[in-house]
Amino acid sequence: MMRTVLIAMLAAAVPAMAAAQPPKVPEAMAGDMRPAEIQKLFDAYLVMEAQQALALSDQQYPQFLARLRTLQETRRRTQQERNQLMGQLQRLTNPRVPKPVDESEITARLASLQELEARTAAEMRKAYDGVDEVLDVRQRARFRVFEEQIERRKIELLMRARQQNRVNPQGPNPPPRKPQP
Question: What 3 state SS string does 119-130 have?
Answer without folding.
Answer: HHHHHHHHHHHH
